[in-house]
Request: fold
Amino acid sequence: MPLLGALRDLGLAHVALSPGSRNTPLAIAAAETAGLEISVHLDERSAAFFALGMARATQRPVALISTSGTAATEYSPAATEARLSHIPLVILTADRPQELRDTGAPQTIDQAGLYGTSAKWTHDAAPPDPAADPARYAVRLATQAWTIAQESPAGPVHLNLAFRDPLAQQASDETAPPPPATPTVHLGTLIAADGALLAIARQVSSKKVLMVAGPSSDPETPAALVELAEALGAPILADPLSGLRAGHHPVEQVVGMGDALARSGRLDADLRPDVVLRFGPIPTSKALWTWLAATDVAQIWIDAGSWREATSSASVIVRAETTDTARRLVDLVEPAAPQWRTVWAEAESGALEALGTLPWPSEPAVAAAMADGIVDGSSLVVSSSMPIRDVDLFFGVQDRPIRVFANRAANGIDGVISTALGVAADGRPTYLLIGDVAFLHDATALVSARRLGLSITIVLIDNNGGGIFHFLPQADYPEHFEHLLATPHGADLVSLAEGMGATVVQPATVEDFIGHLTTPNGVKVIYIKTDRTKNVALHRELLDRI
Reply:
């Protein structure tokens, strides 16, 4: 990538970066640009203030590299200080390409002009276009950014850089590969809810309907969707944040193994529907929404208040409140043949049976045991990255009241402990499932827990780095993987938690773990050590079984 080389030629000597996926081209380019020194920081806020201190001492610009989403927002306090202190910074934020913005694509926020008046200059760059001589464009962009950052009064500049997949391949090439041809997107008919009801009923009645329930914060939605599913004789592929995986409502129609069944190819075989009826934003499962984006099965999408339709695959879009629409459809539809629901029930039970006994300690076993161990009426907060994916696959469907929360609109791992403490403030038993990197991002929030007298049970999985990156293509680049992505930290999280006032326990068996879950009291950290490499192998083995 010529941009980093151009900045180096202008005088850039140091890059402070934090691990991520979308910024892979920038991270690897920085690592492979001779003459650049790199410091890797787990916390973007710390990275930004580190760069600020270095630029203040040297009086020359330091570059920052972040991935997309809320990670980029963590630079804001340091950017403000840099602007007021006249400290030169070159902020490089990776972003999704234009076609994925404002669609609900994961880890995507509006990053153009993210730092407002704190940035002296900001530029939102499209993905590299090989036909437009990317090297010449990069030199111009680097020169402009470098000059403005140092012009009196000095200050931060911001380049927001969009990248398309494949990210790792781009990183290793001198110029970006040609972008794939963008297919014409047909969103179909956009119709008002009142006029849509009869049309929807005609399309779904007596058909093999697959309902897909995305994240929802409306406590009345789950019961309404279950009632509609019963009227249609349809299974519901339920996101863990849909409210359907656990509650007082019947769960016979609810399928929790949608991710595994989508990966297995069954959705294009005996489980293939005639129509997909979707409610709310795209689900957590990448395998499921990738299938939704690729299938030729007709899709009706019902949602209100957003355009979070990242698959661009719905043949009919209905802008309507989901709970009311589902309830109004119940009396208008006819069910499918009972065999349709039966084949899905058999697939769900077969997938669960295939999992067998999960080895302890392992990340899948933790998620499965939490389904058995957390108390009725409790709240479960789940961090982004691997925890939410493990809950999606291994937590299952519970016939008891449990609320599940996660910050999945922007998918950040920042502020997760603080979010869980806010949930715990209502007095219900509250659990948090979190990984080590997210824990380090917000560990000081434990002080607030003690000061505010809050009770929370934190299940902390420590695999010494970014375990989710092992599941991405970037893992095939071992010369950079551990340093730039996996980022082992070697921190003593037990001592850190105890120093913040938490009680720490380390269960030796799954029975011991469940025992600690069933006795929530005070600020308790249940610490579980796992291995990143073994975790990847176990996930693949379990999916192969299914």
Remarks:
- The radius of gyration is 24 Å.
- Residues 189-353 form a domain with the Rossmann fold fold (CATH 3.40.50.1220).
- The CA atoms of residues 3 and 138 lie 5 Å apart.
- DSSP finds 22 helices and 19 strands in the chain.
